[in-house]
């Protein structure tokens, strides 16, 4: 499901399946994008932050067009204890690889991978981040 | 053949891209097909132009013929020039029969009576457009062929499109000659300028697809707002909002291609509004400010702002009124009266 911001429109509540993973997309070229994500985060129930939330930062290929500081984004990721993925949507190879990563994460979050839970997975990712 | 004419022809040919020189000379028709066959159009442009000048010498070209070649070049590369629009007013309502010979005669006579040193050239095109090229001199100097003005007039319309030369002082003369020749009694400059002559014509002749506001209470059901998302597995949560934006956008801009403008300029003469406690600009005079929007295709980019999420729909009427009001230069002053809103001056 794609949405431009949270909260989701209530008129579609009855049509919505269970949400297993929320991916917040931040366009590094737009300050508005970061602001939008920050205001939307407030509407997410705390239980999602146990591994069912992830940040996807796009537009990292265009270094000259960066409007948002990487520091600010990393702080956001740390504050919400959620993994941060960086990608460039304009390059097909990276786009496909990122999509595969997200699908893998989704499978874990939905409980389709025996032995791995969303929480254990996210703590794995966190350990590799901090070094 | 006059040296100045030879040089002018040489420089005009040099402006033309090499692959198009033959075609343009054929359009010109001054050199015979046999003569054109003798020219090697694959050599350096410098040499091509020399050969062409040579042939023109054989045919004793004068400035009148050279001017026609210049019109042909500028007709094909019309988008290199900046065009403005003038609107003429008639005193009565009579639709007079337009006689092209009469028009040319009146125009030349009026212009020459004011200024002897002018070169005036006409060329008619199939779309009813009359192109006029005027090279200006002074009372004592011969016309400068390198800074001419171009005028495009469609008979039976009150609009004239002008690409003026740098010498703005000749505009009143040109305007006078136009109203005399076209049988109008007044002419005024419109606040509409662009490089795309066809787009200017589209705007004033209302040839672009216009929006007609229709009353529609319910959103269009099941319409695929983003055709590339044919994948049924993707669900748009904000579909109704997207459709609202799309509908408002269509109402504002219409569904067809937009005329091509490069600028919109707003000259603000409004009062600066701020928190009274901040005590900024306590002098009660207008805050002069110029806001300019530029784009390779301004109206299309404005049209894509709301769907791209970069602006709220509906857009300000100051932006959406541009083709409808046929203007892209605005002066905005304070509205005098109870409401502190700004309004657009004519």
From TrEMBL, chain A:
InterPro entries: Centromere_Cenp-M (IPR020987), P-loop_NTPase (IPR027417). Gene3D superfamilies: P-loop containing nucleotide triphosphate hydrolases (3.40.50.300). Keywords: Centromere, Chromosome, Nucleus. Signal peptide: none annotated. It is found in: Chromosome, Centromere; Nucleus. Its main location: nucleus. It comes from Pycnonotus jocosus. This is Centromere protein M. GO terms for cellular component: chromosome, centromeric region; nucleus.
UniProtKB/TrEMBL annotation, chain B:
The keyword Lyase does not apply. GO terms for cellular component: chromosome, centromeric region; nucleoplasm. InterPro entries: CENP-NAC/CAD_complex, Chl4/mis15/CENP-N. GO terms for biological process: CENP-A containing chromatin assembly; chromosome segregation. Keywords: Centromere, Chromosome, Nucleus. It comes from the Eukaryota. It is found in: Chromosome, Centromere; Nucleus. The keyword Nucleus applies. Belongs to the CENP-N/CHL4 family. This is CENPN protein. The lineage of its organism: Eukaryota, Metazoa, Chordata, Craniata, Vertebrata. The gene is Cenpn.
């Amino acid at each position: 499901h794609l949405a431009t911001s949270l909260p989701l429109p209530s008129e579609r509540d009855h049509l919505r399946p269970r949400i297993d993973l929320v991916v917040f997309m931040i366009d590094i070229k737009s300050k508005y994008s970061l602001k939008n994500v920050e205001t939307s985060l407030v509407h997410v129930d705390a239980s999602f932050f146990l591994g069912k939330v992830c940040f996807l930062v796009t537009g990292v290929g265009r270094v000259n067009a960066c409007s948002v500081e990487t520091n600010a984004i990393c702080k956001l990721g740390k504050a919400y204890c959620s993994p941060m993925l960086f990608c460039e949507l304009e390059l097909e190879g990276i786009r496909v690889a990122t999509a595969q990563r997200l699908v893998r994460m989704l499978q874990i979050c939905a409980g389709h991978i025996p032995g791995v839970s969303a929480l254990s997975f996210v703590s794995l990712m966190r350990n590799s981040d901090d070094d | 053949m006059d040296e100045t004419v030879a040089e002018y022809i040489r420089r005009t040919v040099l402006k033309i891209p090499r692959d198009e020189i033959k075609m343009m000379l054929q359009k010109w028709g001054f050199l015979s097909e046999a003569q054109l066959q003798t020219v090697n159009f694959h050599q350096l442009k410098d040499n091509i132009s020399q050969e062409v000048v040579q042939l023109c010498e054989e045919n004793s070209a004068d400035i009148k013929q050279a001017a026609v070649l210049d019109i042909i070049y500028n007709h094909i590369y019309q988008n290199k020039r900046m065009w403005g629009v003038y609107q003429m007013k008639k005193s009565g309502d009579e639709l007079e029969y337009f006689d092209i010979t009469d028009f040319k005669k009146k125009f030349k006579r009026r212009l020459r009576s004011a200024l002897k040193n002018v070169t005036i050239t006409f060329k008619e095109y199939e779309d009813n457009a009359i192109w006029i090229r005027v090279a200006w001199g002074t009372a004592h100097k011969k016309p400068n062929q390198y800074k001419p003005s171009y005028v495009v007039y469609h008979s039976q319309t009150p609009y004239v499109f002008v690409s003026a030369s740098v010498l703005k002082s000749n505009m009143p003369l040109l305007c006078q000659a136009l109203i005399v020749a076209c049988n109008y009694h007044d002419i005024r400059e419109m606040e509409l300028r662009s490089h795309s002559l066809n787009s200017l014509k589209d705007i004033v002749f209302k040839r672009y697809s216009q929006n007609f506001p229709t009353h529609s209470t319910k959103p269009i059901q099941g319409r695929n707002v983003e055709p590339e998302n044919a994948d049924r597995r993707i669900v748009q949560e904000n579909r109704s909002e997207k459709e609202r934006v799309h509908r408002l956008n269509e109402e504002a801009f219409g569904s067809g291609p937009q005329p091509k403008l490069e600028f919109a300029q707003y000259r603000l003469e409004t009062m600066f509004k701020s928190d009274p406690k901040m005590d900024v600009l306590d002098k009660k005079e207008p805050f002069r400010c110029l806001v300019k929007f530029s784009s390779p295709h301004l109206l299309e980019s404005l049209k894509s702002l709301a769907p791209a999420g970069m602006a709220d729909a509906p857009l300000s009427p100051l932006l959406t009124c541009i083709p409808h009001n046929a203007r892209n230069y605005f002066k905005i002053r304070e509205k005098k009266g109870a409401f502190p809103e700004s309004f657009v001056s004519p």
